[in-house]
Amino acid sequence: MEKRSELLPGTLDMLILKTLARAPLHGYGIALSIKRISEDVLTVEEGSLYPALQRLLLKGWVKAEWKKTETNRRARYYSLTAAGRKQLGIELSQFEQMMAAIGRVLQET
Amino acid sequence: MEKRSELLPGTLDMLILKTLARAPLHGYGIALSIKRISEDVLTVEEGSLYPALQRLLLKGWVKAEWKKTETNRRARYYSLTAAGRKQLGIELSQFEQMMAAIGRVLQET
DNA sequence: CCGCATATATAGACCATCTATGGATAGAGT
DNA sequence: ACTCTATCCATAGATGGTCTATATATGCGG
Questions:
Q1: CATH number of the domain that B17 lies in?
Q2: How far apart are CA A103 and CA B58, in angstroms?
Q3: If DSSP codes are grouped into helix, strand and coil, which group holds residue B78?
Q4: What average pLDDT is seen over chain B?
Q5: Which domain holds residue A36?
Q6: Structural domain count of chain B
Q7: In whole angstroms, how far apart are CA A46 and each of A28, A34, A51, B34?
Q8: Protein CA at B79 to nucleotide C1' at C26, angstroms
């Protein structure tokens, strides 16, 4: 059959920012969280996740800190910056606007 | 400011198929229709539209026919095939599933 | 000590979309 | 006549996000 993306392209940064807005997390945890909350519909591949986190770091929307996990492993914890929180707001409103627009096209008889 | 796509990537084929499901249209008309119905939020650039139509033709989801427009111009009218109608249904349900999943992630407190 | 889940990261491929063109014609306005 | 604008098609090349594949490393349970 058709091979499809596990993600709606263009939404990954927003999903990461939103996940981090709840609590700081390491990369692996972000992927697990999105997968779990989306009920396995959205799967963030490592090859998408880590480049995305690098982008977000470069833009100053998240910051990173090496720590130990509860299970005593080394992991890089990411958290939202003030700029990241602002950016999340922007992306959410743009996303909603776009969804509303797509909805209009899809519902037009 | 941030430069962003005028479209949510991954939705173009679906929007075209849905537009053609209402009535056959030429390329330019498809772009105008989506722009109008979305109230100027979604803009389909020509460099996105025509390659997309070629893809859809190759997959057999639309067929094309040269005709005259009401204003006496030559134009290529695209219309949905049976396979295209089926494909539209598939894409709509996948899209809704994905939107529901994204919604769960975005609404999680 | 073996296997598995946890954890980070990069290189390269792929593909959809955008930018930038190029071309053609009907009709309106001057 | 002439020009301008909107209508109409199409492609080449750049861009950029996501995926596949790979590499590395470690804590823990059996």
A1: 1.10.10.10
A2: 27
A3: strand
A4: 94
A5: 12-107
A6: 1
A7: 8, 13, 8, 35
A8: 25
